[in-house]
Write a structure and sequence with these properties.
This protein is an alpha+beta fold and 476 residues long. The chain has 14 helices and 19 strands.
Length: 476
Amino acid sequence: MSQQKNTGWAEVRTDTQQEITQQTQNDRVGENKLAYATLTQPTTDVLPSSWRKIPTADTFKQISTNNKKVKTKDCQAFGKYPVIDQGQEEIAGFIDDENRIIKVSNPLVIFGDHTRIIKWVNHNFVPGADGTKILEAATFVYPRYFYYQLKSIELPDKGYSRHFKYLNESTFKVAPIAEQQKIAAKLDELLAQVNSIKTRLDAIPKILKRFRQSVLAAAVSGKLTEDWRKTVTLINWEKVNIGQIASVATGKTPSRAELAYWNSGTIPWLTSSATGSKFCFDAEQYVSEIAVKKCTLKLFSPGTLLLAMYGEGKTRGQVTELKISATCNQACAAIMVDEKVALTEFVKLRLFENYEETRKAASGGNQPNLNLNKVRDIPIFLPPIDEQTEIARRVEQLFAYADQIEQRVKDAQARVNHLTQAILAKAFRGELTADWRAQNPDLISGENSAEALLAKIQTERSNVNTGKSSQRRRSV
């Protein structure tokens, strides 16, 4: 029975390992194929002879958004018409006012004047507020090719200042129209693979979070060391609470009006924000020795656990271990474990595992708080010291395994993010379609060349302008 139970826990790690392996193996294969696609041809700044460079400002017309723009605060969670703005999300919200719709017959591109974000839109929509530029590709530019090339253009980052002028001043590379379509199709295929890899990589941190939580649950319930005990029975485990195995205290905030308490301070003074990391090595604020004496501040030794009793967002319930001597404010509970009966490391594992339940124990109005008694009442199932030691060792080993995977995922995500720009750059040097050009010379030369296409457009524009001038003279 013991062996079966242990196998059940072992399967948690094995299943997690298999799940991550399945994700990453496919990604490595896909990543290698995509990397090969970006490296098989020598890079060069020389464009194919059938291409031409023109100002980006000449490749589109801007669609007016007068009396149509909608602010984010006026959007609804649901509605008839999607609102698209310059933000990160594809859709900012919805509204029901049909008078604000931009009707789309040919695909359009959104350019974020402040954010530099590029979006593809091929359906009716409502434009977001300030900074949402709507661009329609010129007739000599294939819309999808236009979209991808805008994404490839590197613009200076001016913060939240305007960037549209930099886009207008940039250089656009015009290929023959048939080649534009081929490039767009190739980019659709390659970048779909990149996005697929990104999606799988982005899923791994959630898998690791579940894994860590399952490790903690197994640790404090005794399942992690069933094989070590050689029985499922929790021998000599005792149900206690934090107050029975540790001293629990808090700190205070010296008056800010007393400059002597804060000027030239040398003693670390911590707030609940310090609980965001597993260990605390330094402080953002310091108080003076005068403050410690006058305000009777308690100094807590390294090894003390600091639990946030209140704080914004996810802060309440977080725990850190002090690696320095420090005092704290009244938002923190300092837990000093009696090492004769419990290991600080084991108690910390229990507090990590109990995070959600600790948060639920808070009470109050807009900002629920814990208090020292609620912290003292947190239950803990306490094994003998030697088993606590073994549990801490195993958790450290398993967490180190998870940390290694997490770092590899971050490295892979960075490579894949770079891959997108590498593929786009290669596309707009003409390198993705070199073989295609060799096989289809009739589609890129003569009247099909970019030069001939631009000349034709220029002639049409000149004729239109001449016609308008003649009409004005006749009207005079």
